[in-house]
Amino acid sequence: MTFLELIFARLERAAAQAVLAEVRDGRELVSVTGGDLLSMVAQARAFIRARGLRPGDRCALYAPNSIRWVALDLALMSEGLIVVPLDPRQVPGEVAAVVRDATPSLACCGDAAFATTVAAVGNAAPPVVLFDEVFASATKSVEGPPPVRHADHDAVTIVYTSGTSGEPKGVVLTARNITFMLGCTNARLDQLMGARQDPERVFQYAPFCFAAARVLLLTSLSRNSLLTLSTDLTKLSEELKLAAPHYFVNVPIFLERVRRKVEESIRARGGFAAGVYSRAFRAYLKRQRGESDFSGSLALRLANSIMFPAIRASIGPHVKALICGSAPLAPETQLFFMMLGIPVLQVYGLTETTAICTMDVPGRPVPGRVGPAVPGIEMTVGEHDEILVRGPNVFPGYWQRPQETAKALAGGWFHTGDQGEVDAAGNWRITGRLKNLLVLNSGHNVAPEPLEHELAAHIPEAQQVVLIGNQRSYLSALVVTSGSNAATNVSNGINPAHIQSALDAINAALPHYKQIRAFHVVHEPFTVENGMLTTMGKLKRDAIAARFAAEIEQLYRKKSA
């Protein structure tokens, strides 16, 4: 069966069962049954046919996640159209670049504000309709032809990369890519959840314009689950309580914030609680290294009895696992959740690999690694430790970019641009990204990510750490805090002496060319809104370097003076 046939068969079986829900105002769940969703899909399909759209036409979807977004997505693919999901949090200029590149025949927008952004593209703007127009008909039972049956090679979506540097590229994904991936995700989730009669509860907050979020959506629709959609990122804690999920997909920055919030709360309480937690965490880390700590073990048992149950309940009393992807997660954060009794299962992949290459096996995660290659997918290491991938998950090419496609797929392997290594058990570790390599003027190459993670671990109050040093004589760092007194250069208890102490500890074990010799404290967190992060929380390194060019120059003037 194709992925659409699998989904429609499941929705028919669940005609009277809630399959999809939205959280409204952080207080109310609004759900639809499988039958409701099928009626909405049929309604949207009738609208699409009335517009004269044909198989192979491209249609943009520009709106936050919603039940209607999902119905339109299924309707468009059922009519054989190629869905181009746009990022609802992107700035207008980036949206315009995607629209010009994809040249959709129609754009379906969530509201007038999104429609205005598309219209501003000018002559390249497609016709625009609002979701309200698509679902305006009072009749929700619309007969129509069966869904188009895709051939394996048929394109079903063009997903644009997040663009950490340069202009985003459109990644074409086929029916074969998605059908294969749904088989992989369903198999792994079966391992996690085991045999059960009741529907699984899943929560989703990442926008569907990202391949991983879309794969989770389609996987959830194909299995016995209720997927609840976040509608307000400022109310995630309230939404999570309502959704009560068994699992949900996260980006590292979210899990880092949860850990930071818990630890800050414990530190604020001070006294006995802070002491027990500190000793318990140290003991847990020692246990993972095979070391013993008798007094620490007592603290760990005490914390397991009186502290960790309340923390687990605040995160989600029913959570069986947290799934994490988009970037490597700091091992200390993964161990933090494991200590609480909440496993974190890492996933590695790119848009070009239909979001996934590796997945942790439930019950066997290795902190700091992202699991083994999914069965059916081959992975190896090429020149400069670059990870190469081939298999049914690999995309056929970039939209209207034949030269870049040929380069990415040279030799029959997809060249990921990521650096990595694999252990004897087949578990992969991501060590860096080739384009992020810092090349010092001494000729030494330094991958910034491991050092950034290590420095962040020594300064838990820091929100982000960015290493600088390309074509320089030594490395420097930007240490980002969450608000500060610029006059005193002190932020949330962080001061220059604290940072320097952390650098001294790290540098002592490093060769000279990897030592971080200067730093600058940034008093405004990097966010999507200020253009320093992608919407999935990845650093936009080129934008950061440009924004702080003067401060970076000053770091090197100080040392050379």
Description:
The chain is an alpha/beta fold and 561 residues long. The chain has three domains: 3-246, Rossmann fold; 252-317 and 319-435, ANL, N-terminal domain (Rossmann fold, 3-Layer(aba) Sandwich); 437-560, GMP Synthetase, Chain A, domain 3 (2-Layer Sandwich), CATH 3.30.300. It has 19 helices and 24 strands. The protein has an eight-stranded mixed beta sheet with strand order 2-1-10-9-11-12-13-14, sandwiched between helices. A hairpin with a 3-residue loop joins strand 1 and strand 2. Helix 1 crosses helix 8 (211-222) and helix 10 (252-269) crosses helix 11. The relative contact order is 0.08.
Topology at a glance:
Elements: H1 3-13, E1 18-24, E2 28-33, H2 34-50, E3 58-62, H3 67-78, E4 82-86, H4 92-102, E5 106-109, H5 112-119, E6 128-130, H6 131-134, E7 155-160, E8 170-174, H7 175-193, E9 200-204, H8 211-222, E10 225-229, H9 236-243, E11 247-250, H10 252-269, H11 271-288, H12 294-306, H13 308-315, E12 321-324, H14 331-340, E13 344-348, E14 358-359, E15 378-381, E16 386-390, E17 397-398, H15 402-408, E18 414-422, E19 428-433, E20 438-439, E21 445-446, H16 448-458, E22 464-468, E23 475-480, H17 496-507, E24 516-522, H18 541-547, H19 549-560
Parallel strand pairs: 1-10, 3-4, 3-5, 5-6, 9-10, 9-11, 11-12, 12-13, 23-24
Antiparallel strand pairs: 1-2, 7-8, 8-17, 13-14, 15-16, 16-18, 18-19, 20-21, 22-23
Helix pairs in contact: 1-2, 1-8, 2-3, 7-8, 10-11, 11-12
